[in-house]
Task: structure prediction
Amino acid sequence: MADNICRVAALQMTSGPNVADNLNMTAALLEDAAKRCTRIAVLPENFSIMPGNDRGRLAAAETEDGGPVQAFLANYAKRLGMWIVAGSMPMKCTTADKVRSACFVFDANGDIAVRYDKIHLFDVQLDNGEAYRESSYIEPGAKPVVIDTPAGRLGVTICYDVRFPEMFRKLTDLGAEWFVVPSAFTATTGRAHWEVLLRARAVENLAYVVAPAQVGLHANGRRTYGDSMIISPWGEVLSRLGHGGGVIAADLDAGRVRQTRKSFPTISHRHFAVS
Result:
């Protein structure tokens, strides 16, 4: 395999309120990804817990000093020799009754390479009566995050961030050549918008998009859309998993990103910069 080509996997799962059960499920999927010669595995949003209530989320929140979920991720990254982009998990913050929704990136040595805290919070009232108010239990982050990886420079986002193209443009300005969008999209909004948003972010920025998702009916009654995807800089769906838990993988070619941006220089043709 060429030096600038890297196999990346997206893991799809149905998390519940029990952290241990979710980690067992994650372990099996990571083992599956490793068998596919994966160098980077990306977990979905809320992989470690999809709580039944706010108390469950707060009880599972970890600190920067560590915790069982962080230890699990570090151990598997090191044992499998694989980078892990850890979707999102609750982390304690300065507000007592809230958490940060944090995505840790672990390198193949099991060390934390970077942490991103979800910036855009899902506060919506859908026409079918569904209502979501993430700001009632999540404290938002404020800093966009990029990190060099074996697949090129990565821009980290989480779920609802995908609806904000200016964020992806900012990450592109910071050098991002591929994006992760770990998600727990609702079934309603997923049917309407999931694929078009992911492909748009890929095409606008001429970058790969890796989007692992939660899927199915969860113990708290929420139904998520699934349809995990890996998308090329030209907007092609390279791999997808519509329903059920499992692993998809594709080869990301950082050289293709650079060549596409050189031959089709839409990014440099912009007249308006993102501050």
